[in-house]
Amino acid sequence: MTRRTELALLALLLAVTLARVAATHRVFSAVVDEPVHIAAGYAWLVGHSNAFDPVHPPLARLVCALPLARVGRPWHSDIIGAGNDLLYAHDRYEHNLAVARRGNLLFLLVAMLCVWAWASRVFSRGVALVAVALLGSLPPILGHAGLVTTDMAVAATLPLALLALDLWLERPDVKRATLLGLAIGLGLLSKFSFVAFFPVCAVVLLIVRRRSEGRWATAFLAAIVAAGIAWGGYFFQVDTIANVHPSSAGLAYANTPLPAPLYWAGLHVVKVHDELGHLSFLLGRYSQRGFWYYFPVLFLFKTPIPFLLLTVAGVAAIVRARRGLEFVLIPLALMLFVLFSHIDIGIRHILPIYPPLCVVAAAGVAALWRDARGRVAAALLLAWLVVGVELAHPDYMAWFNEFAGRHPERIAVDSNLDWGQDILRLGKAARRHGIERGAVLLVASANITEHGYPVYDLLEPYKPMTGWIAVSETALALDPATPKGGYDWLIKGRTYERIGKSIRLYYVPR
What torsion, rounded to 10 degrees, do the Cα atoms 369, 138, 396, 413 define? Predict the structure, then answer.
């Protein structure tokens, strides 16, 4: 393969993947978190403050809110209301939402380029291209790359920082130390999980590379650059946490002037959130503290089966050849780390596990391709993956593999299945059926009456109703009355129309 051919194929893979994600932008209504991120990004751009919602760093929010900087100031003081003000501005909801979502394509592009560059350092050009193709064929990546959230940002900046670290370990000069600091700084501004994920992965890379002598002369430079980038993301602010975020005033160091105090306040809020836990649902069970096996189970059901099989083949090939062990050990380290998380609300929280695994799976393709039988197996698995992803379009976020069967809502909900994304589809169904009034039990950030669903009543447990009733899977699963039989009168034995992947539309005769 010539260099020109390689770059042409890479460009084709990038274009197809970005176009595939962009085609979903106008299909779905805003998910629960999108108005929050848009409002916070707008406040960062216009008000130069991250105080509106400090629980996430500003990088992804800034990129996505940039196209909405001139639509007009929001008038609501609450963050979801402010985000919806921006989205509904000038009566162009779908347009405004689509242009905001385009910002996340930048992070998808970065992630794919990092996979290509990182894989090329260890394996052949062919393996690197296959790894890029695999990353562009994973529904969790495609789904969350199409939303205004911070999850794709960290899935891009973590491999970027690890690639920069690998380059620096190879030759720790000033240029590579500066690039390493830049990559780490961007990672610190992408999502707070980077603060935990990067050290875990860096230790693995240091152990595999075994290059530490003489490397620390420029490490200080990298640290200074990273700190400067992160501080710049907060406008080089120096203040006390008690002043900028009064709800964190109880911290021991809350009255000490600090650089970027909102960053430390955000870290504190995330830490408290993890300590308190978050109501999660898995395999019919509920827990406020999460399940230690939550992410392994989600990974099993939310990852394409052919990709899992190719990953197994890749692990065997890499261990046998003793080359590229970092691509196996880094995902393993990440998975072991998140077992202790108490915020179990979606596969999106471990999206960074996929870029290195794509390199492993690509190595599995290369290993199988060496003989006739293996070539047939690899071709069949790749065909299964490609066709399966094509059939999933555009519902990548809500996708589950064949292990989940016909009722994935029995496995997991929330951002794995129903995050309020099908309100536009519900409105179209209401117009098709001529619905004039209905009842709802929905998880949504969008105003459902603005999108075609008529005047509605709120569905309550133990109170049977007649007529049209729209119920979303997350709202149903997480309602405390559901396991007690509060909605048995509706869900037991009644047929319904599936709206998208997340909403049930019932009709109960009078």
Answer: 120
CA atoms within a 13 Å half-sphere pointing along the CA-CB vector of 379: 8
pLDDT at 117: 97
Beta bridge partners of 149: none
Q: What average pLDDT score do residues 95-119 get?
A: 97
Instruction: State how far the Cα of 406 lies from the Cα of 486, in Å rounded to an integer.
Output: 24
Q: Helices marked H in 58-192 — which ranges?
A: 59-65, 79-87, 93-101, 103-122, 125-135, 139-145, 151-170, 174-188
**How far is Cα 327 from Cα 74, in angstroms, rounded to an integer?**
45
Instruction: Report domain extents, the chain.
Output: 3-238, 422-508
* Residues 33, 149 contacting (CB under 8 angstroms): yes
What is the CA angle 231-234-240, rounded to 5?
90
Q: What is the DSSP letter of 150?
A: S
Whether 84 has a pLDDT exceeding 90, the answer reads: yes
Contacts with 401 (C-beta within 8 Å, 6 or more apart), sequence order: 301, 302, 303, 304, 305, 388
Note the pLDDT tens digit of each residue in 166-206: 999 999 999 999 999 999 999 999 999 999 999 999 999 99
The residue type of 411 is I
